[in-house]
TrEMBL record, chain A:
Pfam families: ThiS. PANTHER family: SULFUR CARRIER PROTEIN THIS. This is Sulfur carrier protein. It comes from Anoxybacteroides tepidamans. InterPro entries: Beta-grasp_dom_sf, Mopterin_synth/thiamin_S_b, Thi_S, ThiS/MoaD-like.
TrEMBL record, chain B:
Coiled coil: none annotated. GO terms for molecular function: nucleotidyltransferase activity; sulfotransferase activity; thiosulfate-cyanide sulfurtransferase activity; ubiquitin-like modifier activating enzyme activity. Keywords: Nucleotidyltransferase, Transferase. NCBIfam families: PRK12475.1 (NF009123). Belongs to the HesA/MoeB/ThiF family. InterPro entries: ThiF/MoeB/HesA, ThiF_NAD_FAD-bd, Ubiquitin-activating_enz. It comes from the Bacteria. The keyword Nucleotidyltransferase applies. CDD domains: ThiF_MoeB_HesA_family (cd00757). This is Adenylyltransferase/sulfurtransferase. Residues 5-243 form the THIF-type NAD/FAD binding fold domain.
Amino acid sequence: MELVINGELIHVPDHIRTIADLLVHFQLNQKIAIVEVNAHIVQKQEYETTALCNGDRVEIVHFVGGG
Amino acid sequence: MNERYSRQELFAPIGKEGQANISAKHVLIVGAGALGTGNAEALVRAGVGKLTMIDRDYVEWSNLQRQQLYSEDDAKARLPKAIAAKQRLAQVNSEVEVEAIVGDANVDELQRIAAETKPDVIIDATDNFETRMIINDVSCKYGIPWIYGACVGSYGISYTFIPRKTPCLHCLLETMPVGGLTCDTAGIISPAVQMVVAYQVAEALKLLVGDEQSLRGKLVSFDVWNNQHTAIRVDQVKKEDCPSCGTNPTYPYLSYEMQTKTAVLCGRNSVQIRPAGKREYDLPQLADLFAKQGLRVETNPYLVSVSLGEHRLVVFRDGRALVHGTKDIQEAKTIYHRYLG
Ligand SMILES: [Zn+2]
């Protein structure tokens, strides 16, 4: 499926169905991230159950500590 | 009267009135590393009235690539960063009062600074979330806005926290992120630093001149190498029952239980560090991360041990660590935060 991730059209493999899958795909599942789908922030406990659809606009910001 | 601030005064949203405001304000910068020196130089050039900087570290050669206030002489002399920064800032703009504090930005010290010197804005230039959670609670308790900034590799992130208006860091994170990637483990390039500094200083100037409606209002992140930029409006994340900014705040990170506990182990030339809050490390992953940096790592199901020159860092699954080869608590803490965030 194709998603617009952080403003860029990206083709993701077919096994990716939820936000949790997507975070694993980008190796962000161990990090704390804020995820927005179509301009709505998704709660962390809903990552497993929130299905993604072709064309969804996803914004992901993950926290880092360095400075 | 000189022309020092003329170009900034010509900028309409600041003007002469804004400049007068800036010169009457006090900014606290927590940390004098890459972000701290960048923010400090910009604010001192901009003519802020007073700047307080606090840092517990000293200048090393590996800092010079991106920590813009320091010179080779500072690294040779192993000068405390706060002192070296103050010296350079005095050359940049002698009109600004700079207070340098060589010490740990812990609960007591940050509360003292907040209560006694009443900064108008706090700029986060730390390298760990434990200190950020303390800054966050101090901000909520004393009603002082603070500007989060962080960077690793070519990636950076920033957000402006306004007490009683925006969510706080506790609302955004829910739990404390556990280490892994820090600048000392994943590297950092200076443009990522400068970008975060630019976001922080711009927001600080808006706050100092009182132009709150121009604040960005979004959590922003970018990657200057992979050419990405994202901004998310996070207002809806604010929680009424947040222990830091909610209706009945307890400021948990200001309490004794949540502070990192350290102890020098008798006769062992070692310091034990027990971090604040709950942590749980994936030990094989942590060992892998250290090994990738060419460090000598030994591991078993209970701990990861890594050799760091004359020191050895031993990390347990719950985040407790032993730093061998020192009796100096500050040095041990610095090593801990450097490798575990
Ligand atoms: Zn909160």
